[in-house]
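Q: I have 91 residues here and want to know how they pack in 3D. Can you give me a structure?
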Amino acid sequence: MLNKRLRKLVLRRDRYRCQDCGSTKDLHIHELWYEESKDDYEAENPDRCKTVCVWCHAYIYHPYKAMEIINWHFEMETMKKAFLTKWNDRW
């Protein structure tokens, strides 16, 4: 678990952007590796972390599932836009 100080430090260093896709929304801090032998304070090192968005973070852990979620999200967005366009024309 990352502490608030480390999270803020990594976000500032990475200029509040996902280091994989450049997004500025829904940012997470990803630990590149974690040493279980050390206690939490020693294990938290900004050089072992990077800023990623929620989508890239999901892709890191579950690439195939993340692609399904991303495809579903874009399908929903497309349907939402079509729905709003249809109803906005009627109002």
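Q: Anything worth noting?
A: The first strand starts at residue 27 and ends at 31. Residues 4-90 form one domain.
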